[in-house]
């Protein structure tokens, strides 16, 4: 196996795997460093793609280009964000329900001095909300709506999983008009603001 074929396989795998890991990487690296990861992964893919085209014409070796074309097709067709969100929701649903119960029974109360709607989760629940382990609560009737961040952007750009106690679509919750709302299950929605 030649080196271009090996690097073609590796770069193709990276552009397929990166979308599955990008939310966790963004939480780890921050929004400011993540573009460098994207530049390395996608930049190397483009360079190898160009080298694969050159190899096709010079040596009639179509394998590296074929692998990269397959990766491009998969990258276009696979709804990575939807898969990641649904996996995160299913994997953490029971723990998030525990948090909802603790918020509604008063065990978890706002504990961040500068925001009366913010709860910094204890260590055992911190992984449920990206960007520091904070959740946002909003009183709705007798219960609370709760926002768990999947991406906690800069200023008011964020996305997350919302528990809506009355199973109402959270169109104007948490002081935001959401640009994307998708129902995940009874009382649970994925939301994104811009």
TrEMBL record:
Which residue windows are transmembrane per the record? 7-25, 31-53, 65-85
Report what the protein is called. Answer: Uncharacterized protein
Source taxonomy lineage? Bacteria, Bacillati, Bacillota, Bacilli, Bacillales
Has keyword Membrane?
yes
Transmembrane is among the record's keywords: yes
Recorded source organism is Fictibacillus barbaricus
The UniProt keywords, alphabetically, are:
Membrane, Transmembrane, Transmembrane helix
């Amino acid at each position: 196996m030649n080196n271009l074929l090996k690097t073609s396989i590796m770069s193709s795998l990276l552009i397929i795997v990166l979308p599955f890991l990008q939310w966790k990487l963004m939480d780890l690296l921050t929004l400011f460093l993540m573009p460098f990861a994207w530049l390395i992964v996608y930049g190397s893919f483009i360079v190898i793609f160009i080298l694969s085209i050159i190899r096709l014409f010079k040596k009639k070796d179509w394998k590296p280009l074929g692998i990269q074309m397959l990766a491009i097709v998969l990258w276009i067709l696979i709804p990575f964000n939807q898969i990641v969100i649904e996996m995160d929701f299913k994997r953490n649903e029971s723990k998030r329900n525990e948090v909802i119960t603790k918020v509604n029974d008063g065990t978890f109360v706002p504990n961040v001095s500068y925001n009366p709607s913010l709860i910094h989760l204890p260590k055992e629940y911190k992984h449920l909300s990206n960007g520091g382990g904070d959740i946002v609560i909003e009183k709705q009737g007798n219960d609370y709506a709760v926002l768990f961040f999947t991406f906690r952007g800069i200023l008011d750009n964020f996305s997350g999983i919302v528990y809506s106690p009355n199973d109402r679509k959270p169109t104007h919750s948490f002081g935001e008009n959401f640009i994307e709302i998708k129902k995940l299950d009874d009382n649970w929605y994925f939301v994104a603001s811009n």
